[in-house]
Amino acid sequence: MNNDTHFVIETDALTKRFGDRVAVDGVELRVPRGSAFGYLGPNGAGKTTLIRMLLGLTDASSGTMRLLGLPVPEQRGAALARVGAIVEEPRFHPFLSGRENLQVAAAVRGANAEARIDGALRRVGLTERADERVRSYSLGMRQRLGVGRALLGDPELLLLDEPTNGLDPAGIHEFRDMIAGFIGEGRTVLLSSHLLDEVEKICEAVAIVDRGRVVVQGSIEQLKAGGERTVLIGTPDELRAQAALAEHAAVGSVERNGAGIRVTLEPDLELTTEEAAGELNRSLAAEGIVVHKLVAESASLEERFLQITERLGGSE
Amino acid sequence: MSALTAMSARPAGVPWRAMVGAELLKLRKRRGLFWSTLVLVVVPVVVGYVILTVHHAIDPDHAAPAGGITNLRGTYEFLAQVGMVAAIMIGITAGGGDLGAGVFRELVVTGRSRIALFGVRFPGAILFLAPFVLAAAVIASVASVALPGSGREPGALLMVGYAGWLALALLSGMALALGIGSLLSGRVAIGLVLAWQFVLTPLLLQIGKVDAVLVGAALRRIEPGSTDDSVSPTIAVLALAAWTLIPLAVGAWRTARRDA
User: Fold this and answer.
1) What pLDDT score was predicted for residue A314?
2) Which stretches of A43-153 are DSSP H helices?
3) B8 is a domain residue
4) In this complex, do B102 and A77 lie within 8 Å of one another by their Cβ atoms?
5) Which of B109, B118, B255 is the best substitution to test chain A (most A C-beta atoms within 10 A)?
């Protein structure tokens, strides 16, 4: 195992064109080892195309890729032997049982994959129905069987493209636990999704992609911190408070709304939102202004995502 | 992750045996294909000899006995036609089954080379067809000597020769179908190959101008006891080899280059 590489996925200027259309546009991606990494973007942003290139399902038009430290496509075979993947909806031979479908995949993988079939079925909760034809499986069961198949190579890296499609809430919850288990075992998971909530709950780090380009990447906390931070202040003396806050160095803008005074902090303020809220409270108290509500607000991933993608949309 | 991963990601070499076994599993588990092959390869031999026997019993003055060389030849020539339909169906299924089910991409993501994924299809298809052909050959051979005949009884060499000739005929058809099945979608491919095999080839053989490049003429030339000399034996062997290898090469080329 090549554990000396910090990043399990590295792409440089990776581009895929379909005729005149650029589906993936100069993507520079770094996925750290041992993390659950979200690849987040709206439908049609180029998420699946990137994964397909990483997996050798389609060629890149230009740029370079490294998987687990190995250059692909040059060492694709060696790299993918340590990778498990689900691309869109996992597909199976419907006339074969779940177990037989895994046997087919294990035969192709070699390297003791056959011996992992029972464990994989157990892990995804399909042991009881493993000998039924896949034709009779629900979409959720097929998704789980897809995860089972991805585990046959005992992968260091799992590339999961929209893996919760078709899962019911209980299934999604189980899936989250499964991902946490994978991370606990030292595997890395790249989760491609357009579902912000899902990514926020599962992943520690994220890249936001829009129109083929990675717009921003980093930890979810960093990403949220990069967004607009506000403090909502409730006071009986809104006019005086507004005037006082407008002079404060930490404040970018102040507006009154029905809920109170919303203060938008300076973007480059080094204090946390909570620390800034405390500072504003101290400042108002010094002016003799009573504060009865103080709420530090950070942008949710969803708000941040919309800020980023809307900004891009508006600029084009 | 297990310690196994840490030691070795993948041993060198392709697990051919396991992969061919998986191909065979995929064909064997298709019930429709299994029963169609049985009906097209084995059942005609049984039904043929039963009819010949009954016909002879009812009308011995006009219907010859079922055994002997003449009916053996007729059986194999008939099998080369109906068995060809089964061989084409198997070839198309082996060539396009993974792609049609969307499973091809699931196999590509294992990192196994596409050439290896293609390379196991033909052996898998052969292993699937072989027991049927063998059963048909055994039944025909046993019937040709066990049942009374009007002429000579066929010798063991002739029986083996006919079985081999049938195998060659079906393999060439299967290779063509597998290659085309790897290029085109299932329905288009099967229509195209059946039209070529059962409409265009007979027409071209009738015209007689391009026999040297037709697998039908080659098979006619190398059939045991053949008196046909429209093409030389060398040309016949070359034509058969070309009709087997070129479709496979084209199918491999396409499989290696297509998006999965």
Assistant:
1) 45
2) 47-54, 76-80, 98-109, 117-123, 139-150
3) no
4) no
5) B109
Lowest mean pLDDT segment, chosen from A13-17, A93-97, A198-202, B170-174: A198-202
Strand partners for A251: A265
Structural domains of chain A, ranges and CATH numbers in brackets: 7-82+155-224 (3.40.50.300), 228-298 (3.30.70.100)
| Contact flag A96-B11 (C-beta cutoff 8 Å) | no
pLDDT above 70 (res B8): no
Strand order in the sheet with A205-210: A83-86, A157-161, A188-193, A36-40, A205-210, A213-219
Tell me whether A79 touches chain B (CB under 8 Å): yes
Task: Quote the pTM value.
Answer: 0.83
Tokens 């009308």 locate to: B59
Beta-carbon count within 10 A of B26 CB: 25
- Chain B residue closest in CA terms to A83: B110
Q: Closest Cα of chain A to B11: distance in Å?
A: 6
- A17 in contact with chain B, both atoms CB, cutoff 8 A: no
Residue B11 inside a domain? The answer is no
Q: Which chain B residues contact residue A82 at CB under 8 A?
A: 5, 9
Q: What is the pLDDT of residues A188-233, one digit of tens each?
A: 999 998 888 888 888 989 999 988 999 888 888 777 766 678 899 9
ipTM topping 0.90: no
Is a pLDDT exceeding 60 seen at residue B68?
A: yes
